[in-house]
Amino acid sequence: MSQPGTEEILEVCGKVGEILLNAGAETSRIETTVEYIGHAAGASVACYATITAVFVSLENESRTRLIKSTLGGFNLQKVDELNQLSREFVAHRITFEALKQEVARIDHQVINFPWWARILGAGWVSVAPMLLFKATNGDLALAFFVGIFGYLAAEYVGRRTTTPYFKEATGAFVVAILAELLVSIGWGDSSGNIIISALMPLVPGVAITNAIREILSRQIISGIVRTVDAIFVAGASMRLLIEFMISVLSSIGFGVITNIPKRALLPAGITGGVSWCAYWLISLQDHSLILPNFTATVIIGLLGNYFAIRHRVPVNTIYIPSLVSLVPGGIAYLGARSFTMGKAASAAQQIYNVILIAMALAVGFVVAEVIFKAVRPQLVRLIAKLPKVQTKSQRGKRP
Length: 399
Prior knowledge:
The protein has a domain at 6-108. Helix content is 72%, strand content 4%. It has helices spanning 6-22, 27-40, 76-90, 96-108, 115-133, 137-158, 166-184, 191-198, 205-216, 220-257, 265-285, 290-311, 316-322, 329-340, 344-385, 392-396; strands spanning 45-49, 53-58, 64-68. Strands 1-2-3 form a 3-stranded antiparallel β-sheet, with helices on one face. Residues 391-399 have low confidence and may be disordered.
């Protein structure tokens, strides 16, 4: 059998480094695996890996192969297969040609558990923290299903966008909304416990573990970058939850100021929180003024009508507080301020933006009303089956 050429060795070593990097292996493992394979093949290979790139070169030559990657990918089954493959090659149990073929197979092979197993895994991961909280059996079961839906939403979005941390934010959004809605209709007891537990499938555990190991191995740069990445992944979820809670409190506060019925405060807060999170998520993908405001208003219209029937309140008691985060009062103020200071061009632009937002809000309400009229009969029958929400006068009556 002929000795492989240095260019062929460099190519295979570079491919091994690329697969390991994209699969989420720690940088020390990438460097040692690539160098062991190169030395076993008869070449003095040097490898330097960072969190986003791998450099593979020959010590006595000027040729270097650079492989770039992006953060976020993890497939530990591929890491395990390449680890076993490199051991067999270093022990001379397989030839270089067999190694090359196996590396190509691993690169193209989709190694993953079936969907049903991943869905069940996400559900069981979501249940574990509930044991620490000593939650009710009902909340434990709800956390199982909410965690599954959050995981599915994150995976669905992750396959359709490359925006960093967007899929984690979407998963957190779905988890928060489902938890709040389940508690609001009386099926759950603690939305906080459900949210914390159901977020577990989105926690960047692999990134945190790799970051700690690399820092302990004195791979300071890669360790710090992985730590920052893990913080951003967790922060994407926490940022959305913070945005949701602030918008909920803002809507409830405006409802208190405008003196809406007490039973409408929480529905108005949930509607405002959901609509603002939708606005925030859409604005990450679309930086225009129209689509985020339109989408948020459609959600306000649909949820507002639902809660109005469910809690027997006028729909405006839901609409008005929920719109507090979307009404372009600040932009209108900036336009008026620019006009008084003689900045006509800036004032015209601000007023134009106000008109665009107002039109988006108006069209959003029209679309929501049309959709709601179409589904109203089915929704009324569904609400009739739910536990009744008593008004203040009804609670005061004796049976």
